[in-house]
Automatic annotation (TrEMBL), chain A:
Native source species: Methylotuvimicrobium buryatense
Gene3D superfamilies, per database record: P-loop containing nucleotide triphosphate hydrolases
Signal peptide stretch: none
PANTHER family, per database record: SEPTUM SITE-DETERMINING PROTEIN MIND HOMOLOG, CHLOROPLASTIC (PTHR43384:SF6), SEPTUM SITE-DETERMINING PROTEIN MIND HOMOLOG, CHLOROPLASTIC-RELATED (PTHR43384)
Name of the gene this protein is made from: minD
Pfam families assigned: CbiA
Domain CobQ/CobB/MinD/ParA nucleotide binding, first and last residues per copy: 5-226
Name under which the protein is recorded: Septum site-determining protein MinD
One function term, GO molecular function aspect: ATP binding
Family membership noted in the UniProt record: Belongs to the ParA family. MinD subfamily.
Subunit (UniProt): Interacts with MinC and FtsZ.
Keyword list, A-Z: ATP-binding, Cell cycle, Cell division, Nucleotide-binding, Septation
Automatic annotation (TrEMBL), chain B:
Lineage: Bacteria, Pseudomonadati, Pseudomonadota, Gammaproteobacteria, Methylococcales
Protein name, as recorded: Cell division topological specificity factor
Family annotation (InterPro entries): MinE, MinE_sf
Keyword field contains Cell cycle: yes
Organism whose genome encodes this protein: Methylotuvimicrobium buryatense
Superkingdom per UniProt: Bacteria
Length: 270, 88
């Protein structure tokens, strides 16, 4: 039985797709068979971030409509054979996604996969609510910035009330905070909300802090999930996130200024 | 020097302003979110029942919902009119 993870945020541009690609690759690299699904129907981008945009033949909507089988639509990652990508449709309208259709696809994936990562679109429309509906765990991606924190709080409310688990009175979705685009030096200057500030407001379990990093754009430019850039701070931060999610106890890094981060890196680098 | 100190101590960082604004906003949005959706309907129906017996004003009834950590309080406040306003 697969564990279904939704990567969500409410606000756009905070790093949902970057995170989805990174954690899916991270989980797969640890030997867990993982599928990552793009729920952003109409504006698919996960394929680009994963570097498989030219291999897309069928998509999520094709599978839901029975125009292709799941196996036909799933793209096997060339770098890691435990990882599969299910792209979103580019042309169709959002109504193509139905709760029954998504449920069936996830049910079928659950038979064969260990983890299913759902990359949610921004907003609180159908695509976003369907991406989270069947979830067991939620990664709430937040930037240390007022509008992102507020939207994350709204998403928490929706996660708690509009999911399958909530409707069936089951154990609620496990929610984790992922603070992205963090600049320790700006925090120190009092120009940016700190990890503690955001945690205090959202009262969420912190899974990791991803520092603002040039490596993220470099990675997306070349279609390589940033977690594969093992030398980069963001890549290492995502590696920590995956390890923590799997139960490993790793101290938080990249929260303090560069100097300390460097020391930490030196002592920790394998 | 004292003037310098004055400016230094009174200017809060933009991050602390952000935190304060968010705390107020989030607390407010959470409280309105946890209110049960039946509240306006309940208020309307209660008013109708009470009006069968007492001629109260539209705004004489207030329904208030509060939530603490582990208890919910539904507070109902009805202002009864003076004796001679009552429906016989």
């Amino acid at each position: 039985m697969a564990r279904i993870i939704v990567v969500t945020s409410g606000k756009g541009g905070v790093g949902k797709t970057t995170t989805s690609a990174a954690i899916a690759m991270g989980l797969a690299k640890k030997g867990h068979k993982t599928a990552v699904i793009d729920f952003d129907v109409g504006l698919r981008n996960l394929d680009l971030i994963m570097g498989c945009e030219r291999r897309v033949v069928y998509d999520l909507v094709n599978v839901i409509n029975g125009e292709a089988t799941l196996n036909q639509a799933l793209i096997r990652d060339k770098r890691c054979n435990q990882l599969y990508i299910l792209p979103a449709s580019q042309t169709r309208d959002k109504d193509a996604l139905t709760i029954e259709g998504v449920g069936k696809v996830l049910e079928e994936l659950a038979k064969d996969f260990k983890y299913v990562v759902c990359d949610s679109p921004a907003g609180i429309e159908k695509g976003a609510t369907l991406a989270m509906y069947f979830a067991d765990d939620a990664f709430v991606v937040t930037n240390p910035e007022v509008s992102s924190v507020r939207d994350s709080d709204r998403m928490l409310g929706i996660l708690a009330s509009k999911s399958k688990r909530a409707e069936n009175n089951e154990e609620p979705i496990k929610e984790y905070l992922l603070l992205t685009r963090y600049s320790p030096d700006r925090v120190k200057l009092g120009e940016m909300l700190s990890v503690e500030d955001v945690q205090e407001i959202l009262s969420l379990h912190l899974l990791g802090v991803i520092p603002e990093s040039k490596s993220v754009l470099n990675a997306s430019n070349s279609g390589i999930p940033v977690i594969l850039d093992e030398k980069s701070d963001a890549g290492q931060a995502y590696d920590d996130v995956v390890a923590r999610y799997l139960g490993e106890d790793r101290p938080h890094r990249f929260i303090d200024e560069e100097k300390k981060g460097l020391f930490g890196k030196l002592f920790r680098s394998k | 020097m004292s003037l310098l100190n004055y400016f230094r101590t009174t200017k809060p960082s933009s991050a602390s302003i952000a935190k304060e604004r968010l705390q107020i906003l989030v607390a407010h949005e959470r409280s309105s979110k946890t209110q049960p959706s039946y509240l306006p309907q309940l208020q309307k129906e209660l008013l109708e029942v009470i009006r069968k017996y007492v001629n109260v004003e539209q705004d004489a009834i207030s329904v208030n919902f509060e939530q603490d950590d582990d208890q919910e309080i539904l507070e109902l406040n009805i202002v009864l009119p003076d004796e001679h306003d009552k429906v016989s």
